[in-house]
Amino acid sequence: MRLRTFIVGFACGCAAMGFAAMTLAPTQDPADMEKMWQEAMEKYGTPAQEHERLARLEGEWNVDLKMWSEPDTPYEVMSGKASYKMIMGGRYLQQKFTGEYNGEPFEGTGFVGFDRIKQKYVSIWFENMSTGISLSEGTEKDGLITYTGEMPDLMQGKYVSTRATEKIIDDNTLVAEIFMPGPDGKEFKTMEMRYTRAD
User: What CATH code would you report for 50-197?
Assistant: First the structure.
């Protein structure tokens, strides 16, 4: 009963916070408030051309990966499959990845959206070989999205800064790379992923 009361109270609290922005000017004409709300929704709440770019990735993909643990060392290889799907009315791109690493099943889930307030792509990633969550934000220039953020480094037992790039080569090919600091603090490429459309 206590848990149920907490859940209901928490939900009501969130709803009150969500509606707070619409009630900041209680003496304002309701019709004007409705118009302002509709304009704000159109400007910040509806999908834009950046979301159309994300939607190009919907479908099934084969993925080939190269991974470097340190600079100037041989890379490991891994392959997997990725499924992309737009959700919540075309606002977010969901990725589900499955593969095998060192003989163990690997799975990861990611979400990418374009925040029209920040004017940035926002990415989140989590997987079954870590309890950490990777977060990053990115901007696009000449078809290349560059993300900066942080990810958990299990070997160091801490989060490290990262830079990632992503480019749609054509409707059937996507290339992504991830960079992180090496032992000397200099950035090196730790992962390269080549997606090839399977459907």
Answer: 2.40.128.20
